[in-house]
Write a structure and sequence with these properties.
5-stranded parallel β-sheet, about 350 residues, alpha/beta, globular, 10 strands, about 45% helix
Length: about 350
Amino acid sequence: MFTYDVSHSDLHREIYEQPELMKVCIEKNEENVKEIAKLVRERRISKVVLVGRGSSEHALIVGKYAFEVYTDAVASMCSPSVITRMNGKMNLGDCLVIGISQCGMAQDAYTVLEKCKNDGGIAVSITNERECLMRNAGTHYLNMEVEKEYSFTAGKSYMASTILVLLLVAYIAENESLLKSVHDMPSMIQKTLDSGMEENIAKAVTLFRNANDITILARGFSFAVAHETELKIMEASYTIAKTYSSCDYPHGPIATTRRFTPVIFYLTDKTTDESTLSLIQKLQNDFSISTLVVTNKEEYVSYGNEAILLPKEAEGIDAVCPLAVFSQLFCCILAFARGYNPDAPVGLSKVTVTL
């Protein structure tokens, strides 16, 4: 295991701030979320449109799964250019639209939210910055409440965005089990950080520090989080990463498998683990790949050359935050291992405006 100095890393510091900040995020937004959910139920809205870029979009992908698992709604990811550039004729009057931007300056998300409001729909804007373009967009506003984010790689804003969307789903669905899961997420983050994960990642990262590419394979809620893992790896360590569904990968992408491209597997959901396990065995047998298994089940640890064992409670929806913590710590440590500063990625700006 290599040594590294995190004393000046904003990303590393902010990862460990998350348990307390997520409690604040839930506490300060819960009453507003209840009101929005009540309105959605009263209007019997069953169409959800989700709009964001980067980490904001990835938080919404988790939300898409949750809406379709826990409510009767059909959820779709918005292509903002249909409205901002192509003068699309879609009517959002019978939709719930959720737009997320950490900085609140996303012109495209703002435009979609405003169209929803003008069409008569319910439009929810979520930002971290209060004085911003999106603050007054749409019909309702939620703030992430995670204080200023100094890290270029979104950590606490991604986590807060994800939790807020799941909190809204829980209240719309009136699902007590999901609501309990959301309320438990801050303690799940703390439990994950206290599990020795960072030390285990520092040991496992030797599989990846000299790799040109990394593949991530998962399914279900873990696949949703894997999109964020992919982004984190690329922006912090300049390593090309690609996420695939364990079910999609055999339908073509498997032909690109190479022995020296290590693979991260997420195994955190008994409803979807079987297909991922089968894929691990096939890739190990056919390509002799190096594997990192991230799981909450001790019996799966042996499937990897290296493994990260999450708290056993990190199952299904309850794995979302632990997997996000893994993503953040992994990209941070990999950046140090490759000799880069995760807080100074080349070519990135904290505020990126897309029209």
